UniProtKB/TrEMBL annotation:
It comes from Idiomarina rhizosphaerae. GO terms for biological process: photoreactive repair. Binds 1 5,10-methenyltetrahydrofolate (MTHF) per subunit. The keyword Ubl conjugation does not apply. FAD binds at residues 234, 247-251, 287-295, 384-386. This is Cryptochrome DASH.
Amino acid sequence: MNTKQQLVSIMADYRLGLFVFRNDLRVEDNLALYDAAQRSEILICCFCFNPTQNKYGHYGIPAMGKHRFTFLQQSLKQLRTELEMRGQKLIVLTGTFDWILTELISERQVDAVFLSQHQGYYERLQLSLLQQRFPFLPFHETPNNTLFSEPELPFELADLPETFSQFRKKVEPLSRDFSVQLVDALPPLPENISYPGFKAETLNELASADFEGGERAGLEHLASYFSGQSAGTYKQTRNALDDFSSSTKFSPWLAQGCLSVRQIMAALREYEAQFGENESSYWISFELLWREYFFWYALKHGKRLFAFSGLSGKSPKTSFYSERFQKWCSGNTPYPIVNACMKQLNATGYMSNRGRQLVASCFVHELSLDWRYGAAYFEQQLIDYDVSSNWGNWQYLAGVGADPRGHRQFNLEKQTERYDPDNEFIKRWAGDLSGQPIDSVDAADWPVR
Ligand SMILES: Cc1cc2nc3c(=O)[nH]c(=O)nc-3n(C[C@H](O)[C@H](O)[C@H](O)COP(=O)(O)OP(=O)(O)OC[C@H]3O[C@@H](n4cnc5c(N)ncnc54)[C@H](O)[C@@H]3O)c2cc1C
């Protein structure tokens, strides 16, 4: 045992701590892991993977597609290396969250469980099932994936403002030091731990070339982003449909927690100290507040995040048409810009924010489809899928969420003229399928599928 570890064990509150990684797949600036390390004499670090996610999900759409799965595997591989460098090990358990953890906690006689606070309704439900099974076991949940913790917010969660603008005006004046917590040493593993580690050979090499999962890759991307020119022009370029440097591309690492939002803010502050604050650097923090807003929105509204009527209490006048849905998913609609975006998503796992707004607007307005199917398809395909940002943005665009205007239809022709005037993006992704009908009908106008 080295001196740091000895120090840790002298001060420890618990003999055996269990740290459960979820959307916080990093070691640096992982406040929940830091807490576990400070308070446990020995520690087990685990991640629970439920393989049914690759098969089942909302509305029969598997919840995790190949891009995110590969990104996740890469992230776990890097996490394992980071833990090993600190004398620890990553144990990957396969099965249902509450059942496999019930088994592990009972078998190893765990004294306390540590996790990061999760905003997802189902994730919170799984945790509360586990807590009900062990009513006397301490569970420590640390705010770890937001800029502010709940007590720091200038309102009670129940009073979260109904719109993003009101939220932003309340939280922007809060001053906060975004210093990053380093984690150099971790308590040792218990002896004779027999659970298998993560097998690198299961790694599926389908990841998008632009995004490599993991903490190291995320930190490299962060450093490279702020060392170039892109942050200085972000406000002007962020709406572009393509081009890697037009927006930050932090989202996949943020979604899996390979990077913390505090690390990003610390890097942004450093950039501003060196090059001066400007409209673009401010706009990066502005966008990060959208993410922050949706986190608290999901936590406040729970399962209503997934409800057809959202927060509005009124069901939209849309439905499910299988042919339209299939055409939208595969990029075979009468709308070239939508097709190009969907083909890009299917091929890479990524789509720009502009693209997401256009395809979601088309889904709801031109195709009259039930927005929840679109959100579920995004959940499967997006490499940066994040429960609150995804379902919150879909609700917003479907007019049942945090949008005071309640109806956001984009004019697809005008948007194409503005964002793809030479049809370069449409050509690159083979979006133009002129003459494609919205529905297949026979001569008497009856649907044929
Ligand atoms: C229908 C729809 C679904 C979406 N689903 C997701 C999702 O599952 N996961 C996800 O991270 N983002 C989602 N977004 C938000 C946004 O499109 C992405 O965060 C952004 O495109 C990611 O690219 P970037 O990192 O380069 O973003 P940048 O423009 O560089 O923004 C910086 C960061 O700010 C945050 N951000 C920016 N815009 C938003 C926004 N509208 N809502 C929440 N956070 C935002 C993200 O963390 C992003 O990484 C969705 C948007 C729409 C319209």
